[in-house]
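Input set for joint prediction.
Command: fold jointly, output tokens.
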Amino acid sequence: MTDALLLEAELAAAITAVAEGGPPLDFDAWARRIFAHQFERNAPYRTVCERRGVTPAVVARLEDVPAVPTAAFRHLELTCGPPEAVFRTSGTTSGPAARGSHLVPNLALYRASALAAFSRFVLPDGARPSCVLLLPSVAHRPESSLVRMCAWVGEMLGRDAEWFVGDRGLEIERLLEGLGERERSGEAVLVAGPTVIFADLFEACRTRGRAFRLGPGSRVMDTGGAKGLRRPLSRAGFFRECWAHLGVAGYSCVNEFGMTELCSQRYDSAFADRFHGRNLAPRRLLAPPWLRTRVLDPDTLATVLPGATGLLCHHDLANAGSVSVVLTEDLGRTVGDDGIEIVGRVAGAMPRGCGLLLAELGPA
Amino acid sequence: MSPHAVAKGAALLAQIGAATRARTRLAGRPLSETVVALGAAAARWCEDAELTRALPALGRFSPAMVAALLPLVGEALDPAAMTELVERELGPGAAARPAPIDVALVAHVLASNVPALALPAIALACLAGAAVVVKSGRDDPLSASAFQRALAAVDPELAATVVTVYWPGGDPVHEEILLATADVAVLTGSEPALASLARRVRGRLVTHGPRLSVAAVGRDAREETERVADALALDVALYEQRGCLSPRAVYVETGGRLAPRDFAERLAAALDTLAERLPPAPASVEERAAARLLRTGAEWAPGTAVMAGPGGTVVYDDDVAFRPTTAARSLRVHPIRSLDTLPALLPSAQIECVGLAGRDPQALVPALRERGVSRLCPPGRMQRPPLTWPRGQQAPLGALLGHPGTPRCEVET
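tokens >
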């Protein structure tokens, strides 16, 4: 194993240890180590850092580590070593050249981060649900980081897993049949996928007059929000539909916020808050301890006051193999001491996200 | 429907009824009188103190910008230009004859992105012989009523054919009346807004969705090149680049007096200079974020250079693909070997106007018309469209009268 992979393996072990109740991560120390690692091995990143006069030796604060805009993933190979996997952003309207690529040298680190965060926020009760995945399989979409994550979830955290999006899109009849079987078994079910595919499921339930009451402990994980939706669906409306068609209450619906460029994800707070006996309000997106997000003033790139809207900039230690500080095209704000809320996307930002995944696969 | 909604609807219906009756009283009068009245009203409108005072806050413009914009809007209602328009579209001698009688009522639903869209809307409807209802956009509920006041001061009979209304957000009762009673509905706005309104239109529908503009500088611009950069800076800055006539990219032919990259620097400097005369409006966090992402994105992209200053952001970009900027006062400058290849670079049905210098425009007209471009003009005039502008490639009066003609692309010199 090379030095580069050793650091990533060490971090993966540390993340797993945190997830299992081990000692907390020293975020700052890891962040500095990782910046030095990336500065040394990631040539395009080093070029920009040097142009700005920022080196590991002179970084006084983590805020000084240069952030990489997501647009850079469209032009540059930002990796610290030969990639074990290449994940590509979704988006069809601007052609393949407009899609970003995240080159990941060590999938084990992504896997450790993804599984630990998923367990923490979606399965805090230790449940092992039957996984109904409203997604294509890894064989169909090897370049989707979301699909890869869900494959690991099904394999490691679920009782079983089944994929319901094929070459021609959502296989609705098979899905309805699968949900019916699981309803009859009374087992806990995890239904996971892009919000837009949930909308198609709800529509199919409505037109066919179907409604499921999934077993106790069932839950929903959706991602992507309104992107790609054919008709508006508010968050409250999504909760109502989940209850009406799946029998899953709103507090058991967990929204995931992930990006192809990140190996860590944020999750809606409600399910974990409920499990830990905390107040469910305000709902916010929580991160695992190895992911921090700053909200930046667009002019100065300084952190804004709590609650003010700005550009979201993520510092993801699990991105050790590429670049850890990523400036997004998302506007957001902090909520409480530990959460954020996505307010919207900057005008003119490239369409992207798993909401567009179905469009790439063909008709539903 | 609540009694309040019924009362509101009845009031609007009464206003519309009065306007259409007023129209019939103008049946015999020559269009030249309408032309004179509209021109005089535009001149008065430009001096409207209340409008000058209120528009900066409403429209998020600096007072200096409003002071610069009002005369530009007013000049479009120049009597000579209006006479030319009616003679061209309605036939020789049309100005001396009464207005057409084909269309009784035109309804305009205006967008919010730029102010004073009401003036050409009202003028064209009057010249088409129709009564007109104008529903203003959120950021400028004042221009239409100010023009109606000005018109009432010079020609009360004509002013009686004009109804100006405003309501914030969607109002199903009012919208239903507006869209169902008009012979022609002209809708301007975003695609979702147009889609929502269009399905309720009962008469003929004319839509103007989101459009953009570009500029092109040929190598024959020679000693004019620096002046062209200054003129384009004005086209960018006016209306804070919110309109469909605002350039979002400049294609500069290589081999000219200034290399494309030097042109970009000159343009950036011109924007900075202009900002002293026309200060940028306070930017929202969304607009500032768009500017930031434009700058940082370009910093990481190969073949680009960023020139950002207090007057805006210019990105020099080797890649000729058209990627419109969204930040305020920003645009990309691309090198191009030959302007002959420009039309093929532009997306179809998305570009309204091309500001062109250093090149005979006629040679480019057929290909640009094919791409949906409606207007070619010199830099510095992009934001000064005459009333004859065939917006959306349609004849301005013909679109209202039901004979928009073949797609048009006009050249202004």
